[in-house]
Amino acid sequence: MALLAIEFQNEFATEGGKLYPACRGLMEETDMLRKTSELFELARHHGCHLVHCPISFAEDNSDNFQLGFGMLKSCADMDLCKSDSWQAEFCEEMTPRPGDAVVRNKRGLCSFTNTDLEDILAERGCDTLVLTGFLTSCCVESSMRTAYEKGLNVITLTDCTADMDRNAYLAATTGTFKLFSNVMTKDEFVSKYLREEALPAFPQQTIQPSPEPRQSEAGTIAETPAAH
Asked: Measured between alpha carbons, how far is 206 from 123 in angstroms, rounded to an integer?
């Protein structure tokens, strides 16, 4: 089992980030930073695999593959998450720890597209993916749909995500999420899967690495033994 933290970066989660004012309301309403940080600490204790997936772009947007319209155009127009900037750094509450994996080369909305996420999961034998992060209706949902199509057991924690728009958040968490994942809160997940007597809790099914050439190597800070 792997827990995926999508874009817990200063741009979204810390005062001074350009998207923080828009995300702040739902972040405070759900208390998602505290809940996700506590969840990751508990998951470490249980030997789960923890994966962090940041997004960043070159200063000249040469690696942004959709400048014509939509969310990625907005990222370029607003100069969001520029590589090597404070805005693109992990927020304090969710900075990766030794043993956590870090996904490389996320430039789009889906955490799988042109990244090494699939390889990271396959190398660790993970068949279940638990989603948290930003933005609920955008990168979280896009990653969820792809994970579902790849045959993973997908779980999404509604109060460990946040969005810029409350209506978009509710449309996702009360509508489309249930089509592509098992939807629950952080406390429901902990009660069901992170009690001592609940592990292991998932069907055994190994996801094989994609045969296509990858654009990067699986990134990790350090390796530690962990449960699947």
From this structure: 9
Strand-pairing partners, residue 94, are none
Dihedral, CA of residue 99, residue 101, residue 9 and residue 46, to nearest 10: -50
Could you tell me the pTM of the whole model?
0.85
Cβ distance 214 to 123 under 8 Å?
Answer: no
C-alpha span between 133 and 142 (Å, rounded): 12
CA atoms within 13 A on the CB side of 181: 28
Q: 167, 16 in Cβ contact below 8 A?
A: no
DSSP 181-211: SEEE-HHHHHHHHSSGGG-S-S---PPPPPS
Q: Could you tell me where the DSSP H helices lie in the chain?
A: 10-13, 20-30, 32-45, 70-77, 117-123, 141-149, 166-171, 177-180, 186-193
For the stretch 104-124, pLDDT in tens is 999 999 999 999 999 999 999
d(CA 130, CA 183): 10
Tokens of 72: 């990625």
Q: Could you tell me which residues are beta bridge partners of residue 90? A: 9
Question: Over the stretch 68-115, which tens digit does the pLDDT of each residue have?
Answer: 998 889 898 899 999 999 999 999 999 999 999 999 999 999 999 999
